Each structure stands twice: as C-alpha cells, then as structure tokens.
Amino acid sequence: MQIFIQARGFDLSADLRKHVERRIHFALDWADQHVRKVSIRLSDLNGPRGGEDKRCSIQVAVPGAADVLIEDIEPDLYVAIDRAADRAGRTLARQVARQREYRHDSPRDGNTKNAAIAGEAESTSAASPFIHSGK
C-alpha cells in the first residue's frame, strides 16, 4: 500500500506526517491486499483566520472497484485526520464485504442455486440439437 500525503496552506511537519501514516496503517492495514494507493490531502481552508477549517481528504484506490473518498473538516487537524481515517476504514470494509457477497452469488462460482439451475438449462439446451427424434 502506497501512502501519499499533501499539505496545502501550511508546512507538513515530521510529527504530522508520522501521525497520518500511523492512523492510516491502523485503519487500513487489514485491507493491505485490497488497497493499491492511499492519497491524503490536508488543507487549512481559512488560513490564519482560524475557525472550523482544517480539512482532511482521503482517497483509497481499490483495484476493480470505485475509489473510497472521505473528507472531514474540523477545527483541529489531528481530529480531522483521526475521523477521516476511521471512516475510510469502515467504508472500505463495507465495500470489500459487498464485493465478497457479490462474488459468492456469481453463477461462475457454481455455489448458488441459480448456478445449478443455469447449468441444468445449459446441459438440456446443449443436448437438444443433437437428439434425433426419428421422424
């Protein structure tokens, strides 16, 4: 899993970088085989004016599925990072569960009732052109 961190409107300190990497690993390490790249964009929307303006945007690139996009805005950047990382982990868990569920219901697996019915229909229709009724 590759992690890319960008900061806009302020300098990215070593401590902040370490915090982001630690939170991302904590939230997403379980899904390392599903995740190709994680991009984190940190920004201070209002600059020195203050207010609820620290934004953390996380984009998780998952091969074969839509990217997970999470954004959180808080007065404290560390809180925004923590909340966004937690939400990214939960959202990715739901997406992976849906993919597994979809794959298990796929007729290619041969594990569902629909696959068995489809297989019977194929064998019946495949055999019928070769049957000679003798008329």
From TrEMBL:
One Pfam family per UniProt: Ribosomal_S30AE
Q: Which Gene3D superfamilies match?
A: Ribosome hibernation promotion factor-like
Q: Which residues lie in coiled coils?
A: none
What is the organism field in this record? Candidatus Accumulibacter phosphatis
Highest classification ranks of the organism: Bacteria, Pseudomonadati, Pseudomonadota, Betaproteobacteria, Candidatus Accumulibacter
> What is the superkingdom listed in this entry's lineage?
Bacteria
Q: What SUPFAM superfamilies does its record include?
A: Ribosome binding protein Y (YfiA homologue)
Q: Where is this region: Disordered?
A: 95-135
Query: Which InterPro entries does this UniProt record tie to the protein?
Result: RHF-like (IPR036567), RHF/RaiA (IPR003489)
- Bias category Basic and acidic residues: which stretches? 98-111
What's the protein here called? Answer: Ribosomal subunit interface protein
Position of the signal peptide: none
